[in-house]
């Protein structure tokens, strides 16, 4: 259930019987022909679909992340690493103070994964808590499903092109883009990254049939739900 559909009394009642919640993390950045909010949309949606049958509350998706590489693309907003880690600290500490002890972080943006390394520091200060960090798009089963469809897939390509990330009136290119030189890209400032990438897609087709995408989505939801049901350490 979405936390925005609850009031404080409902949250208090839930905490009397369970201590689990979901915190989705997104980003606002270029995604070629797709929505600038693609990472936010997908993280929130997979979290909500996974948690709904279990009655576990899902907090609003954090819509900003770490993405300095793409700041030459208008509409991209990046947080500094220190700001982001401080924000994660406040969010997790606040949830812990409320009584949530099992928190599934559903991350939708690769740049946010710096938080995954930092998480051990937070857990050392909160030994009673259990936090799972789940990069939903490249978790083992979901990534295997992507690769089974087409092994040329990356940022802003077909693998993020779902009916709910497309924009009305925007037509995706039809060509299959070769993989950009990632080693070169990582050396460049934002303006150089834009010049190298062009539209922003790293590699592959921009779109694939919806039946393929929905099968991948079902696997992603099931894999995320399994973490909620059976992923907690003793």
Automatic annotation (TrEMBL):
Annotated Pfam families: Creatininase (PF02633)
SUPFAM superfamilies documented for this protein: Creatininase
InterPro entries per UniProt: Creatininase-like_sf, Creatininase/forma_Hydrolase
Cofactor: Zn(2+)
Keyword Zinc in annotation: yes
Keywords, sorted A to Z: Hydrolase, Metal-binding, Zinc
Keyword Metal-binding: yes
UniProt record, GO biological process: riboflavin biosynthetic process
GO terms of molecular function: hydrolase activity, acting on carbon-nitrogen (but not peptide) bonds, in linear amides; metal ion binding
Membership in a protein family: Belongs to the creatininase superfamily.
PANTHER family: 2-AMINO-5-FORMYLAMINO-6-RIBOSYLAMINOPYRIMIDIN-4(3H)-ONE 5'-MONOPHOSPHATE DEFORMYLASE, 3-DEHYDRO-SCYLLO-INOSOSE HYDROLASE
Protein name: Creatinine amidohydrolase
